[in-house]
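Dear Dr. V.,

Thank you for agreeing to look over these. As mentioned in my earlier message, I'm a first-year student in the group and I'm still getting used to reading structure tokens, so any feedback on how I've presented them would be very welcome. I ran two proteins. I've put each sequence directly above its structure. The first is here:
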Amino acid sequence: MTYSLATALFVSLGLLLWFSYLDWKWCSLGAKMTCSSIFLWFGIYRNSLPKSGVDVFYGRVITIALFFASLGDLLIAFEGEEWFISAVVAFMLTHIMYTIGFSSILWQRFKSRTANYYSLVSVLLFIVFTSYIVGYRIIIPQIPSNFVGICYGYMCTFAFIVLTF
């Protein structure tokens, strides 16, 4: 089963590269969605195998993240501001789910050690300050006003990702 999915993935990736080279938009979309579906199927297939503990939670969260990534790939193919914002939200949810999944494994390691909470607070303050400087002073002034909210949400998502690692 795994080998046939891997073979289908490599064939789909090859078609995606070829259709992108030829600039065949809808064929590229079909190949891209096939690749995304295979990644999602890998996640579903791996979750059907017996596991226990953190692995179950991790696998389910990563599979949900793969679903949102596939949804984002589909939505970004369409033109228009609403489609773009919907795709960005789907990709943001993907990143949040990846972060939750990866941090669930890190949290198990963190709980087994003594934590230095002062360093954690200082890292959090550094991220907030840096996000403010980079975001509001450099990035936000260059973005059209109707995209500021979604960009700020994405910046907060990446600050969360950095904080968890």
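The second protein is here, in the same arrangement:
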Amino acid sequence: MEIKVKDLYQWDKDVSVEIISDDIDEVDFKNPYGDTAFVMPITKTDTGILVNIPNILLTYPLDIKMYVVKSNQTRSDHVFGVNARQKPSDYIYTETEILSFKKLEEELINKIDNEIKSAAKEIQENVHDGVDGVDGVDGKDGKSAYQYAQDGGFEGTEEEFANNLARVVLVLDGNGVEY
């Protein structure tokens, strides 16, 4: 297996590594001092594969370890040195490896939606039809929840009150997310 990569410098971006081999499933990168390994997509070429080094790892003058994986086993590992240099004044970094807040929000809402649907299905499956019981004595009429809300200062209509009860609001990182 032959590895081709240019000299690496701090603040480089979109640097590719060429691996001359077609026997690869995955390529992971990490810095030796961090806990996070970045699994990067690979692009097959006529001579092997191309894979980009995560830009975030190139923001530090630290070695980068690359692991070449086949069938869930590391076949080889390589260390690339990153030469220190001053940050260019026109450097703009867009991290592609960390989920944006919007994507995280969408995934969380989808997960909650699936859990609610699953719980509703389980409840529905566990409800059994039986014989109706004997009707009890009618109780004394009292205030509705809407009337109590009005007493507490709610100024909307009964329909607005009902809509507010039907809505679930999550709070993520100080931002209200309606669901």
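From my reading of the second output: The CA atoms of residues 12 and 150 lie 62 Å apart. Residues 101-125+143-178 form one domain. Does that match how you would interpret it?

Kind regards,
E.
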